[in-house]
Amino acid sequence: MDEHESKNGLKEFERAARCLWKQYLSGGPGSLNATLWDELKLRHQQLSSISQASPTLTEAIQKVMELARRCAERPEGLSFVTAEAGLIPRHAEHREFEQSLIQIAQALDDSSI
Predict the structure, then answer these.
(1) Which structural domain range is residue 57 located in?
(2) Which one of 54, 72, 78, 90 has the fewest CB atoms closer than 10 angstroms to its CB?
């Protein structure tokens, strides 16, 4: 895979991740459309050929996948479950997801993916 294809693959991954995150934030835990998770998994598989990715980019991609999986597969998503208040967002994990998306966007601005 050449640099242009790698960058396009990363752009598609970022787009899918942002779409999934936007829907999760607007609908909350348990409301995520399964096709968004399927799309992100597919885009992630296509990224496996980006062998020259920096450790920071690799970590950001893995963090997005880990947190997106929890959004898609766990009924509570990225929230605490409490008897008194119901679901309470885990703000640190929300920040981690958003920071990882920023790191991916910064990597796209860098010409050496």
Answers:
(1) 3-109
(2) 54
Helices 91-109 and 55-73: angle between axes, nearest 10 degrees: 140
Angle (CA) 95-20-47 rounded to 5° is 90
> pLDDT, tens digit, for every residue of 12-62?
999 999 999 999 999 999 999 999 999 999 999 988 766 567 899 999 999
3-state secondary structure of 43: helix
DSSP letter for each residue of 56-112:
HHHHHHHHHHHHHHHHHH-TTTTEEEETTTEEEE-HHHHHHHHHHHHHHHHHHHSS-
Is the distance from CB of 41 to CB of 34 less than 8 angstroms?
no
